[in-house]
Amino acid sequence: MDNNIDKIAQKALEKIKNADVTELESLKIEYLGRNGFLTQILKSLSKYSIDDKKSIGSKANRVKNIIEKEIENKKANLKEALFDEKMRKEKTDCSKSFYFPFPKGTFHPVIQTIKNISTILKSLGFLVVQGPEIETEWYNFEALNIPKSHPARDIQDTFYLDGLKNLLRTHTSPGQIRIMEKQKPPIKVIVPGRVYRNEASDAAHSSTFHQIEGLSVDENITFLDLKMVLTEFIDKFFGSNLGVRFRPSYFQFTEPSAEVDMQCIFCKGKGCGVCKNSGWIEILGCGMVHPNVLRSVDYDFEKYTGYAFGIGVERIAMFKYGVNDVRLLYENDLRFLKQSEFNY
Ligand code: PHE
């Protein structure tokens, strides 16, 4: 009988060593359960002599305890291994992007263009400031030397608010007045923002669009400074080394005034539909700040000079990205917005 118990024990330990969780459960029943091997032996002790009863009984009990313990140990080991495995599988790689499974968002091309323009001008020493979209006649017109009779003030072009007291700014130039009122020279700022004009929209016009105003005022600022800054800006923005020219023009708030053209980026100056065969496209307006503008903010116009420029954001975005209808920039058709040119 002793031998038999040893054999049973040996076999059981062998089986436990290689068992998985479910096998352990059946081994427990097989050896320790009510009809299990060891329970059977203990139950059958009555047929043995007193001495045998003692030795077989205690041996069977010892073996029972050992098997019980082994099963518990093995269970604990398996549980630990399973946990390790789970941790290994579910481990989070913190170096992966949090947004990994989601589609990557992009900036709207107008915003992207404002960012690109601002980055270049900041590198040339300009500070970015903001002005309000709701303005008064003083900031939008009067202080900028635009007389009452001027057609730009016409109710047809300007969105007036509150019974003509306030208006939606028609350009970012009132930003010039606001910064000069607040601060003495030297001034070197850009004012990006949304502007409004009461006009019908078509492929080239929209009643809401964006401009970036530039203003630099100090002693000894000359037209040469203006030419240098704008030529550098155009070269950097379009990255194309195309010709740039300054053409005499007229704005009430600058004297002299100029319009800046660059060689058409579509035909490289040869002449095409976009540049109406002239080889040149108009990029922005600029000039030397008019003494009347300096006077309106109580600057000493004998001492200080300055230049200003106004960039039409949509216009140069359209040239840069080859967009032929300004309305595409406002319809927010994802097929348009997702084009890779905008996503850098
Ligand atoms: N404010 C002018 C416009 O909207 C642009 C401009 C700005 C021109 C600054 C000269 C100097 O057309």
Task: Describe the structure in your own words.
- The protein is of the alpha+beta class and 344 residues long.
- The protein has helices spanning 2-18, 21-32, 37-43, 50-90, 109-123, 137-140, 174-182, 223-238, 291-296, 313-321, 328-331, 334-337, and strands at residues 127-128, 134-136, 160-161, 166-168, 187-196, 208-218, 244-251, 254-263, 280-289, 305-312.
- The chain folds into two domains: 2-89, no CATH class; 109-342, 2-Layer Sandwich (BirA Bifunctional Protein, domain 2).
- The chain has a seven-stranded mixed beta sheet, sandwiched between helices. Strands 2-4-3 form a three-stranded antiparallel beta sheet.
- The model has no long low-confidence stretch (mean pLDDT 91).
Ligands: phenylalanine
Our count of domains comes out at 2
CATH fold-level assignment of the largest domain = BirA Bifunctional Protein, domain 2
From the 3D coordinates, which CATH architecture of the largest domain would you assign? Answer: 2-Layer Sandwich
Radius of gyration: 42 Å
Strand order of the largest sheet: 1-5-6-10-9-8-7
In CATH, what is the class of the largest domain?
Alpha Beta
What is the fold's blueprint, element by element?
Blueprint: H1 2-18, H2 21-32, H3 37-43, H4 50-90, H5 109-123, E1 127-128, E2 134-136, H6 137-140, E3 160-161, E4 166-168, H7 174-182, E5 187-196, E6 208-218, H8 223-238, E7 244-251, E8 254-263, E9 280-289, H9 291-296, E10 305-312, H10 313-321, H11 328-331, H12 334-337
Parallel strand pairs: 1-5
Antiparallel strand pairs: 2-4, 3-4, 5-6, 6-10, 7-8, 8-9, 9-10
Helix pairs in contact: 1-4, 2-4, 5-8, 5-10
The structure holds phenylalanine.
The site of phenylalanine has 11 residues, from strand 9 and strand 10.
